[in-house]
Design brief:
The complex is a heterodimer of chains A (about 270) and B (about 220). Helix content of chain A is about 15%, strand content about 30%. Chain A has helices spanning about 45, 70-80, 100, 125-130, 140-155, 215-220, and strands spanning about 5, 15-20, 25-35, 55-60, 85, 105-110, 135-140, 160, 175-180, 180-185, 190-195, 200, 205-210, 225-230, 235, 255. Chain B has a single domain, classed as Glutaconate Coenzyme A-transferase (3-Layer(aba) Sandwich), CATH 3.40.1080. The chains are: A alpha/beta (about 270), B alpha/beta (about 220).
Chain lengths: ~270, ~220
């Protein structure tokens, strides 16, 4: 005689209805709740706990969309120094990760777009540090940047790409002809911390994004020892449709709620 | 008559010329700068899907202020909308589209283009840093690369040259050059003058183009 457990319809968030069967006979019906995994942290300060001087930190976002503004502000408050930042843009003294550069917390920046519309305005400290050799800037093609992050998250140490050969950015890198095309060897990037923004998390760290928020965030979330997501709302496990989760919770270590600065625009799963 | 005295196309006219070269159903990446003008000139009833490197296919026009959504921006960080059939994704899928050869054309700005189709567009000569963004990926990854630029610099320096002396974005990657005086195809035989702006003839375009232009057939007049 075999005993089996089957899941019954009528599942609610964080609980599962089940039946215990012996052959075809139900011998017990019950509910099961597991809420052991809880990645919520109470504050931005707690979200950055353990982020040490000299760490490599990935910061997601593109043009403000998906940019973890509150975590970056908290990192500035924290004052952690000698950071290697991985971010698409350098920002300015008032915007983006530029606030960390202006606060002299950054030793190296790995990016694809260091100079914004204003090469000088708001970039005074950036240039001072750069000229003094106190700030290194590694420029990468944007696709190579995200692929190196992806490789880091996927356990791939390096890869060849046809982007870059013959340009300054491939200088000093290994070139190999593959399939008749010159390709450059690029190595994986991993980080101690990744800071991302999504719209909603559940308590297990599953993330859904809105509009163009995904950008670098989904790749960066995979490539850090500790990934911290700032979100507008945390819901119970089961409240998010598993089919729309773009970052599975396995990649997320901490979730912190921040004020929703786009409240009127929160629309999921439907056009508009 | 020297080149300077002939009328040149406006940026909007160059954009219209590029737009007229796009085919129905194409997936098109539009770079920052002058290329952002191209979508405004697409003929009605043509379905072109605009790709933005930050994770959008089906980019629509600028929103009315009440429709503006700060989470919906294009590669130039300008507010945009979504057209019916649009999709959203991450940089991973976006650059798989770019690097995997899925885009029909990338429209990029340019500082210089060489006779062999090399492109320089990410930083100027002698600059300390520059912004490649997605340009190097687009240059090697898109099926076609259209470059939009003025034919000469403000100081009159030639921009279509035998060999670029600005830092390169990609080698032998340009398909067609659209300037304020001509449309030039990069072919294995060399640069082919395909179209000229009104008031221009092959000799006048050649006078401000360093490599020799091939003119296998009389060039069409742009907008004519």
């Amino acid at each position: 005689m075999s005993t089996t457990i089957v899941v019954l319809p009528g599942r609610r968030s964080d609980t599962v209805r089940f039946a215990l069967r012996e052959s075809t006979r139900r011998v017990h019906v019950g509910t099961y709740t597991a809420a052991v995994i809880d990645k919520r942290v109470a504050s931005l300060a707690a979200a950055l706990d353990g982020l040490a001087d000299g760490a490599t930190v990935m910061v997601g976002g593109f043009g403000g969309s998906g940019y973890p503004a509150e975590l970056v502000s908290a990192l500035r408050e924290r004052g952690t120094r000698d950071l290697t930042l991985v971010a698409n843009n350098a920002g300015t003294a008032a915007t983006g990760v530029g606030v960390l550069i202006a606060n002299r917390q950054v030793r190296k920046l790995i990016c694809s777009f260091p100079l914004g519309r204003h090469v000088r305005e708001g970039m005074e400290t950036f240039w001072d540090l750069y000229h003094a050799g106190a700030l290194q800037v590694e420029i990468l093609p944007q696709g190579t940047l995200v692929e190196r992050i992806r490789a880091g998250g996927a356990g791939i140490p390096a890869f060849y790409t046809p982007t870059g050969p013959g340009t300054m950015l491939a200088r000093d890198k290994e070139i190999r002809t593959i399939g008749g095309r010159a390709c450059v060897l690029e190595t994986a990037i991993v980080a101690e911390f990744a800071l991302v923004r999504a719209a909603i998390a559940d308590r297990t760290g599953n993330l859904v994004y809105r509009r163009a928020q995904r950008n670098f965030n989904t790749a960066m979330a995979t490539a850090a020892r500790t990934t911290v997501a700032e979100v507008y709302e945390v819901v119970a496990a089961g409240a998010l449709d598993p089919e729309v989760i773009a970052t599975p919770g396995i990649f997320v270590d901490r979730v912190v709620v921040v004020a929703d600065d786009r409240p009127s625009r929160r629309v999921y799963g439907q056009a508009g | 008559m020297s080149g300077a005295e002939r009328p040149t196309l406006s940026r909007a006219q160059i954009a219209a010329c590029v737009a007229a070269s796009l085919q129905d159903g194409w997936y098109v990446n539009v770079g920052i700068g002058m290329p952002t003008l191209v979508p405004n000139h697409l003929p009605p009833a043509v379905e072109i899907v605009i790709h933005s490197e930050n994770g959008i296919l089906g980019v629509g026009p600028t929103p009315a202020p009440e429709m503006a959504d700060p989470d919906l921006v294009n590669a130039g960080r300008e507010l945009v909308t979504l057209l019916p059939g649009a999709s959203l994704f991450s940089h991973l899928e976006s650059f798989a589209m770019i690097r995997g050869g899925h885009l029909d054309v990338a429209i990029l700005g340019g500082y210089q283009v060489s006779e062999g189709g090399d492109l320089a567009n990410w930083t100027v000569k002698g600059a300390e840093l520059g912004n490649p963004g997605g340009a190097m990926d687009l240059a090697v990854g898109a099926k076609r690369v259209f470059v939009m630029m003025e034919h000469v610099t403000r100081d009159g320096a030639l921009k279509i040259v035998r060999a670029c002396d600005y830092p390169l974005t990609g080698i032998a990657c340009v398909t067609t050059i659209f300037t304020d005086v001509a449309v030039i195809d990069v072919t294995p035989a060399g640069l082919v003058l395909r179209e000229v702006a009104p008031g221009w003839d092959p000799a006048a375009v050649q006078a401000i183009t360093e490599p020799r232009l091939l003119v296998p057939a009389p060039p069409r007049t742009i907008g004519g």
